[in-house]
């Protein structure tokens, strides 16, 4: 067993900031692990690993939500791997919506850059906080809380989001409830909805059972 002073010195050297790597650019050719992507060898890292241009492109809003999310998470932007940060672009056609959803692993800062968006979240005590946001407005959504964004006004809207994780995770409530294979009677029981409504929503959102 190591003497305590030696053990403390050893731990100090291991945990010292000077011994830590500056970055851990994701090696996207390898599978993910519970801790994220493995690091590329520093000799193979280039400046391109730290630049992502995907958020300059307008997302395709021709879908049921009339909205699009373009992520810059570690699986798209290798340079953020291990840094506990990431970003995304959100495009809204007129009538567009990002329905109630949650990011289990991250808080979110939401910046409107074009148009008008009604956004809000629900706290764990079921208090509701929502407001109409305009260009330049910021709103924060605390980690794990249900939140939403809805386009308002007569023109499309654009927003950018920053997250406190390289992989914030996403669960959309409506898809979780009605886009799965849970038997309809069970969904009806846990949602207090009737059979007709549950089957209608399952049909729209791709669920079975």
Automatic annotation (TrEMBL):
<feature type="binding site">
    <location>
        <position position="147"/>
    </location>
    <ligand>
        <name>Mn(2+)</name>
    </ligand>
</feature>
<keyword id="KW-0732">Signal</keyword>
<dbReference type="GO" id="GO:0048046">
    <property type="term" value="C:apoplast"/>
</dbReference>
<dbReference type="InterPro" id="IPR001929">
    <property type="entry name" value="Germin"/>
</dbReference>
<feature type="binding site">
    <location>
        <position position="103"/>
    </location>
    <ligand>
        <name>Mn(2+)</name>
    </ligand>
</feature>
<feature type="domain" description="Cupin type-1">
    <location>
        <begin position="53"/>
        <end position="199"/>
    </location>
</feature>
<feature type="binding site">
    <location>
        <position position="108"/>
    </location>
    <ligand>
        <name>oxalate</name>
    </ligand>
</feature>
<keyword id="KW-1015">Disulfide bond</keyword>
<keyword id="KW-0479">Metal-binding</keyword>
<feature type="binding site">
    <location>
        <position position="103"/>
    </location>
    <ligand>
        <name>oxalate</name>
    </ligand>
</feature>
<comment type="similarity">
    <text>Belongs to the germin family.</text>
</comment>
<feature type="binding site">
    <location>
        <position position="108"/>
    </location>
    <ligand>
        <name>Mn(2+)</name>
    </ligand>
</feature>
<keyword id="KW-0464">Manganese</keyword>
<keyword id="KW-0052">Apoplast</keyword>
<protein>
    <recommendedName>
        <fullName>Germin-like protein</fullName>
    </recommendedName>
</protein>
<feature type="signal peptide">
    <location>
        <begin position="1"/>
        <end position="20"/>
    </location>
</feature>
<feature type="disulfide bond">
    <location>
        <begin position="24"/>
        <end position="39"/>
    </location>
</feature>
<feature type="binding site">
    <location>
        <position position="101"/>
    </location>
    <ligand>
        <name>Mn(2+)</name>
    </ligand>
</feature>
<dbReference type="InterPro" id="IPR014710">
    <property type="entry name" value="RmlC-like_jellyroll"/>
</dbReference>
<dbReference type="InterPro" id="IPR019780">
    <property type="entry name" value="Germin_Mn-BS"/>
</dbReference>
<dbReference type="Pfam" id="PF00190">
    <property type="entry name" value="Cupin_1"/>
</dbReference>
<dbReference type="GO" id="GO:0030145">
    <property type="term" value="F:manganese ion binding"/>
</dbReference>
<dbReference type="InterPro" id="IPR006045">
    <property type="entry name" value="Cupin_1"/>
</dbReference>
<dbReference type="InterPro" id="IPR011051">
    <property type="entry name" value="RmlC_Cupin_sf"/>
</dbReference>
<keyword id="KW-0964">Secreted</keyword>
């Amino acid at each position: 067993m190591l003497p305590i002073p030696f053990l403390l010195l050893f731990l100090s050297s291991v945990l010292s900031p000077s011994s830590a790597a500056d970055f851990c650019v994701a090696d996207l050719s390898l599978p993910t692990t519970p801790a994220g992507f493995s690091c590329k060898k520093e000799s193979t890292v280039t400046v391109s690993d730290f630049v992502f241009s995907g958020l300059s492109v307008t997302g395709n809003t021709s879908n049921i939500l009339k909205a699009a999310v373009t992520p810059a998470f570690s699986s798209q932007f290798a340079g953020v791997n291990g840094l506990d940060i990431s970003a995304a672009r959100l495009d809204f056609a007129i009538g567009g919506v990002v329905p109630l959803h949650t990011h289990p692993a991250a808080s979110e800062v939401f910046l409107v850059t074009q148009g008008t968006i009604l956004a809000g979240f629900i706290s764990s005590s079921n208090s509701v906080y929502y407001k109409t946001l305009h260009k330049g407005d910021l709103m924060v959504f605390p980690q794990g809380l249900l939140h939403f964004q809805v386009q308002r006004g007569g023109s499309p809207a654009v927003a950018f989001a920053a997250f406190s994780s390289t992989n914030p995770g996403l669960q959309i409530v409506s898809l979780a409830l009605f886009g799965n294979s849970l038997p309809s009677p069970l969904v009806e029981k846990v949602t207090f909805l009737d059979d007709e409504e549950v089957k209608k929503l399952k049909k729209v959102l791709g669920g079975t059972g």
